[in-house]
Specification:
This protein has about 290 residues and is α/β, with parallel strands linked by helices. The chain is about 35% helix and about 30% strand. The protein is built from 11 helices and 11 strands. Helix 7 (about 200-215) packs parallel to helix 8. The model has no long low-confidence stretch (mean pLDDT about 95).
């Protein structure tokens, strides 16, 4: 079983559109995992049926029992996050500021503070329009632990791939280099790095590639909208060559990206042109590479 992750150093590069196209081309042969849990949108293109769902609990927050609290303010003195305040002569915990460290509960002389585990979101197992299975999730508003939710999505996708004897898990990762990206990269065999020909695009490609190298995964690069800035495209090509990143393709700017999304379709099912042919060739190249 091989794992392919599609990531980008920044948002807006076309990462999810390309990942969804790979999912369409892979059909029933791939298990899809949408690990962009902070801003999940692959479901808009893959039409999941949400036939299984489960709450995801992770992280803790302090809760003060007002009947036990004597307003000694010891908790205020030790809270490093300034999460506890006084309102109407009572102590309250701001759930957005509380990091769940539990120190306030440890020092409370009245045992009036407890830590409660939080509902951080939901994860789903769905059948998608290709007939395959997709594991996906939605992080709650303001919730933490997106990295742990990504790990949950990936682990469930692996279980299903083993049960259904599927050889490929296709992962749509998060943009950037934060915790969810690190979790998305864990254990992958091939990372597809989607960039765009801008100064920030090149900079963020370098950052995400440094992260990929730490996981010792092979990497391939796609330059999307490559014809909009030939000079920067050349710099990205030079960088990929120097870093031994497999240059998968340069994709031209094409409004099909937008039109297909508004129709709720992947690029490769919406139209047949040079762009979609290139994406099909990229998918075949990736499968050969792994």
């Amino acid at each position: 079983m091989k794992e392919i992750v599609v990531i980008s150093g920044k948002g807006g590069t076309g990462k999810t559109s390309i990942a969804a196209s790979f999912a369409w081309l892979g059909g029933k042969d791939v298990i899809v995992a949408d690990c962009d849990v902070d801003a999940a949108d692959m479901h808009l293109l893959m039409q999941p049926d949400y036939h299984e769902s489960e709450d995801f609990y992770s992280g803790e927050k302090a809760i003060i029992d007002q009947d036990k609290c004597t307003q000694c303010r010891c908790c205020i003195d030790v809270c490093r996050f300034d999460a506890i305040s006084i309102r109407d002569d009572m102590l309250y915990v701001d759930p957005l500021e509380c990091e769940g460290c539990g120190y306030c509960a440890r020092i409370c002389p009245e045992n009036a503070i407890t830590n409660e585990i939080q509902n951080a979101g939901q994860w789903y197992i769905s059948t998608i329009k290709t007939g395959s299975t997709m594991v996906h999730a939605r992080l709650g508003i303001g919730a933490d632990n997106s990295g742990k939710l990504v790990a949950k999505v990936k682990n469930e996708a692996r279980k299903i791939a083993i049960e259904e004897n599927k050889d490929i898990i296709l992962i749509d990762g998060s943009p950037g280099i934060g915790c969810p990206v690190i979790s998305s990269l864990s254990g992958v065999d091939f990372a597809v790095l989607v960039s765009e020909p801008t100064i920030s695009g090149l900079h963020d490609l370098k950052r995400v590639n440094e992260l990929v190298k730490k996981f010792k995964a092979r990497a391939g690069g796609i330059i999307n909208k490559a014809d909009l800035n030939i000079r920067i495209t050349g710099q990205i090509e030079h960088y990929m060559k120097s870093e031994n990143i497999l240059h998968l393709a340069n994709l031209p700017y094409d409004e099909i990206f937008t039109y297909s999304m508004t129709c709720g379709k992947t690029i490769v099912e919406y139209a047949r042109n040079d762009l979609t042919t290139s994406i099909s060739v990229i998918w075949d190249t990736i499968k050969q590479a792994i």
